[in-house]
Inverse folding.
């Protein structure tokens, strides 16, 4: 799969993840379209990176202010698994900075 195609899929997957569609369902649909497992994994990672660019600053702010992230209106559109992944990434960044 070329880069342009992967990004097109990743942008669509990011939109689906913002509509609380589960990662497992998205993976299943991509597999049904005939995509390879490796391509699907790369698309999911890229989609999470796209969402990270949008939500990471807000998650950082919430963590620094010790605010509740799960159940917050700002993150309500995202699937819980995606929120957990973004939180873990941000915590990892904090650890690396320490």
């Amino acid at each position: 799969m070329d880069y342009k195609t992967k990004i097109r899929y990743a942008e669509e997957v990011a939109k689906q993840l913002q509509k609380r569609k589960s990662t497992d369902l998205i993976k299943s649909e991509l597999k049904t379209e005939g995509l390879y497992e490796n391509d699907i994994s790369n698309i999911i990672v890229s989609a999470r990176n796209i969402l990270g660019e949008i939500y990471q600053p807000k998650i950082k702010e919430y963590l620094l202010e010790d605010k509740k992230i799960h159940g917050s209106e700002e993150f309500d559109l995202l699937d819980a698994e995606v929120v957990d992944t973004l939180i873990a990434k941000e915590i990892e960044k904090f650890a690396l900075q320490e």
The two ends are 38 Å apart (CA to CA). The helical segments are 3-18, 23-32, 37-64, 80-97. The chain has one domain: 3-97.
